[in-house]
Write a structure and sequence with these properties.
By secondary structure, the chain is an alpha/beta fold. It is 37% helix and 21% strand. It folds into 2 domains: 2-244 and 455-467, Glycogen Phosphorylase B (Rossmann fold), CATH 3.40.50; 264-452, 3-Layer(aba) Sandwich (Rossmann fold), CATH 3.40.50. The strands form 3 sheets. The protein has a 9-stranded mixed sheet, sandwiched between helices. Strand 12, helix 9 and strand 13 (321-328) form a beta-alpha-beta unit. Helix 1 crosses helix 16 (455-467), helix 8 (267-282) packs across helix 11 and helix 9 (306-316) runs parallel beside helix 10 (330-342). It binds adenosine-5'-diphosphate (ADP).
């Protein structure tokens, strides 16, 4: 079976969040199951593309609203990636340093999809399934089924995975000329609520759609930022497949980004060494429980509540330490940064994206906070489990599917609401648990044994491909 994955992120080439980890790991695990994959993503001007060799695989031109753009397809050769990855480059359009945050986003997404399809046509490349990830590439099912230019590709089945329904890529009909020609009677397939909505178009036109956890699938049918009715009506082709983690990269026994590697038998000393490194770096007392947060500082992740949580916990008594790694809304970043001065010695934050520090935090903290309002799947809790770090999560989306509360015979700390009180209360429960070192250590060992690897879910995706 041959699968084409299309995405705007793939680790280690370019990562902003979980999408990169998923698109990186899924083809790898499927390779072991005899499924051949090609990942096609944009070219980014970054360290990774700079240090690895690129081989040209073709070029051509696309038209964007009357303007011709030349595209280049570059295959990247890296020992870190066991499957094929091709990058689409268009000078001054798809050659940015960062992944998101540019004014011409819709032009970039559309140009990428056009160039990819044009290349497939030119080189006569066929795949059993084109697997589109998120709204950036979700116009492909419409393009190949309803646009003359690409209609020859329509025999290929398509799967759209919704990693996050918050982001739909809507734009005004004024920009319709950016799209390839199609018969106006099909405009309804692109439209949602008076806008061209790429995610909605993907949901309507893909052969199958899925999202990244069973609970998030059910939640989306109730609330999907306006798409819930559409998802209900397309529910016969909609499924929920839980993400997994790449246990080759996320393995405390071999992770080169840790200060000390460890396994279940020496988890206590191993984690202590990594915690000590964090405590030294940030001036924390090593004997107090250490809480970590890693993620985008956005409303979805309840990052706006963190400042009040830190104040609530640390103003009353200073019996724990809290460390935050993330970036996002400027206002939240500012509020969090202010806390460093106020709670020096008990609180620290690093505003930015730091892969290396994130690994050290998963290994070195005692508890990981994930109070998300929305969490389609969440990978952080699975990484933390693998590293013997107890997750504290809100019962939502994939967090509900992967973490069971200690009170229910499980191994984590769960709360219902995204509120300062619920999060604070969970932290108090964690501090109590930390005092009972016998049970705390037993849970650390228990959680490291949980198998959240991609093995099971990679097979589920293959079953989905086979069904179409
Ligand atoms: P998201 O909604 O952001 O995709 P996930 O839990 O699915 O959330 O995945 C988040 C991924 O991004 C994890 O690999 C996490 O470690 C990583 N991550 C998030 N923020 C940062 C950061 N500031 N620095 C390093 N890694 C980060």
């Amino acid at each position: 079976m041959k699968i084409l994955h299309t995405s705007f992120e793939c680790h280690p080439i370019a990562k902003a969040g979980g999408l990169a980890d998923v698109v990186s790991a899924l083809p790898k695990y499927q390779l072991a199951l005899d499924v051949e994959s090609l990942v096609v993503m944009p070219f980014y001007k970054n360290l990774f593309t700079d240090k690895n060799k690129l081989k040209n695989m073709g070029n051509g031109t696309i038209n964007l609203n009357g303007v011709e753009f030349k595209y280049f397809i570059e295959k990247i050769n890296s020992e870190e990636i066991p499957y094929s990855v091709c990058l689409v480059r268009i000078d001054n359009l798809i050659d940015t340093e960062h992944i998101y945050g540019y004014e011409d986003e819709k032009e970039r997404y559309i140009a990428f999809q056009k160039a990819l399809l044009d290349w497939l046509l030119k080189c006569n490349l066929t795949f059993d399934v084109i697997h589109c990830h998120d709204h950036h590439t979700s116009l492909i099912p419409f393009f190949i089924n309803y646009c003359n230019e690409y209609i020859k590709l329509k025999d290929m089945a398509t799967v759209l995975t919704i990693h996050n329904a918050q982001y739909q890529g809507q734009f005004s009909h004024d920009y319709i000329n950016l799209l390839p020609d199609f018969s106006i009677e099909n405009i309804g397939l692109l439209d949602w609520d008076g806008f061209v909505n790429p995610l909605a178009a993907g949901i309507k036109c893909a052969t199958r759609i899925n999202t990244v956890s069973p609970t998030y699938m059910e939640e989306l049918k109730e609330n999907a930022c306006g798409l819930e009715g559409l998802l209900q009506s397309e529910s016969n082709k909609f499924s929920g497949i839980l993400n997994g983690i790449d246990t080759c990269i996320w393995n405390p026994e071999t992770d080169r980004l840790l200060l000390r590697n460890y396994k279940i038998s020496n988890v206590t000393s191993g984690k202590r060494a990594n915690k000590l490194a964090l405590c030294k770096k940030y001036g924390f007392n090593k004997d107090l429980p250490l809480f970590g947060f890693i993620g985008r500082l956005v409303y979805e992740k309840s990052a706006d509540l963190l400042t009040d949580v830190v104040k609530e916990v640390l103003l009353k008594n200073k019996n724990c330490n809290i460390l935050i790694l993330g970036s996002g809304y400027e206002e939240i970043e500012k509020e969090i940064t202010k806390l460093k001065k106020e709670f020096k010695g008990n609180f620290h934050s690093y505003i930015g994206f730091d892969e290396e520090l994130s690994h050290l935090i998963y290994a070195g903290v005692d508890f990981l906070l994930m109070p998300s309002r929305i969490e389609p799947c969440g990978l952080n809790q699975m990484y933390s489990l693998r590293y013997g770090t107890i997750p504290i999560v809100r019962r939502t989306g994939g967090l509900k599917d992967t973490v069971i509360d200690i009170g229910d015979g499980g191994f984590g700390i769960c709360h219902e609401r995204a509120s300062v009180w619920d999060i604070t209360y969970s932290i108090y429960r964690a501090i109590d648990l930390y005092k009972n070192q016998k049970i705390f250590r037993k849970i650390q060992k228990q959680i490291m044994k949980i198998d959240n690897s991609w093995s099971k879910s990679a097979k589920k995706y293959i079953d989905l491909y086979k069904s179409i």
